[in-house]
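Mods, move this if it's the wrong board.
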Amino acid sequence: MLESFFQPKSVAIIGASTEPGKLGYTVLANIIESGFKGEIYPINPKATEIYGHKAYASVLDTPTVPDLGVMVVPYKVVPGALRECGERGVPAVVIITAGFRESGKEGVEREREVVEIAKQYNIRIIGPNVLGIIDTYTPINATFAAGTPPQGKIAFMSQSGALQTAILDWSLAQQDLGFSKFVSLGNKADVSENDLMEAWADDPNSRVILSYIEGVPNGQEFIRIARKVSRKKPILVLKSGVTEAGSRAVSSHTGSLAGSEQAYDAAFFQAGVLRMNSLQELFDNARAFAQQPLLEGDRIAIITNAGGPGILATDTLERRGLQLARLEVETIHQLEEFLPDAASAANPVDVLGDARSDRYAKAIEIVAKDPNVDGLICIVTPQATTEIQETANAIGKLAQSFDKPILGVFMGEARIKPGVDILASYDVPNYKFPEQAGAAFAAMRDYRRLRDRPDPEYVTYDVDKAAVAEVFKQVRAEGRVSVGEAESRRVAEAYGLRLPANKLAATADEAVEAANEIGYPVVLKIASPDILHKTDVGGVRVGLRNAQDVRDAFDLIVYRAQRYVPDARIWGCLVQEMVSMDGVEVLVGMNRDPQFGPLVTFGLGGVLVEVLKDVTFRVAPFGKQDAYEMLEEIRAAALLRGVRGRPPVDKDALAEVLLRVNQLVTDFPEIVEMDINPLMVYEAGRGAITLDMRLVLKG
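Not the wrong board. Structure tokens:
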């Protein structure tokens, strides 16, 4: 538990300074001026008193054991100071000091030493290299920032302290942006996003958790914790640094399709986390979650004194997948009784440009009571007769009396500002434009859907793990990482994947013998652990109907392989049963992400998969519902459902393949890439068959 960071009864500022302008002075001043009510112990061996508080030479000299230590000493002094905290029994320390992992090789060693000391004395650390921490309800501001943010219901953590200083300054100018907690994570030597999410899950002062992150060191743990916490309150994350620059080269289709961006999208979805695309979106949506009841349905009503903004709001709702509420007949009749003839009593409700506050109030009250309405957007433009402040008061009072979210869109700047401030006093978030309000409602809808998803139903099949382990042992014994097709077949068979009949032939004569045994027509494929994309070198021939076809194809395939990849090891050709091609070709694959582990891919297959890029992703292990959801998430989902007279495909068989692959890549972390492409799926009842499968092991 992290109570010592946020509700300390005493704080030691280790490195407190007597000189204004220095960090040690600023942190001490912020703690005092934030109204902290506990004991404050400045630690400075050269001072007797700082800022009206008795100073101590060491934390070992304080009259009581501090609950929290805040370090602003030079980095060379940090290990010794931390050891003294451990000897004194201080349970929590914020290390503001920089000069650790972020500064190079020597800094890495310094940080390792700090972590070892903390573990030795069971000290929890936030930092090093942080802005500090704030809790507005304790209250305590243990940062070197200029000011304390307004009190609110948003708990915010960030890896970037500099970003937080800008946001803090911004919040001081906003009437409706308040925080409960404000934490700089820095190097995350100990306390991470995972720890804070768990700590804030039951915090009554925090209704929404925000996070700006640059990386997640333990992705599987993040998914587990975030999924648990997001059941209780929304988690909004802005993730930076997801470009592919510097990523390792990949050889599989899946590897080229999957990247950091896709891994984070899949992980956040499975964790119930809402991913934001910008700082503005992050805080726009956070205000709605922090200040209004959750949206319990998708039906939105719009009340406006201007037609254009009402249409813009309508367009936004439709684009975002929300519904324009269909008002009940009785609601429309009540509106028509008092609205002018030129007004619109249908949704959007246009109260006209001359509407005063009483007309707005009555319209909102009637519409909010309609059982078909789940949320309201109230648009106000500053026209000549508009009573801006009175209308804001009316909206604010009504928002407090209904258990439905109401968002304001007071459009304008100079004239509208007093109304915006009044809305803020009632905890009604205001947005400059209708699109922002629509996006906030969409975020609320998305959170509700993620929150209500059932826990994963994990499926485990009876498989032969020992056979797969033996295949991989043999591959490694030969100094390879690429698993040949014949070996991949043994892996597929061990995990219950259906395969066409198949035999390896080292010569043309053996190929003919195999084809006679399997039965014509057959397919020939080059068998080489060094040739991953067979079609690229002309290494596949289909529809071979007799012995001569097989001989000719064998010689041609081997010739092409030797010509295009001279150094490749050629084992011969695989002779394969030619299965019916009247199904749909899909891809199932996996690429192992450094943060989250196995990222399983599903989409349309064939040679154009990298061009079409019609794929979706899940981080393994995932559940049965995820497998079926993946089938509906690709753009070509209609093709799987059946189009133009084609029957629906066997979705149960597809889902089973996904779940068996899910189990395989979870059981064997040494698999870094794999493709089943194509996987031919037939109509319901006919199943799916693996036509080609490749595996790459960790080097």
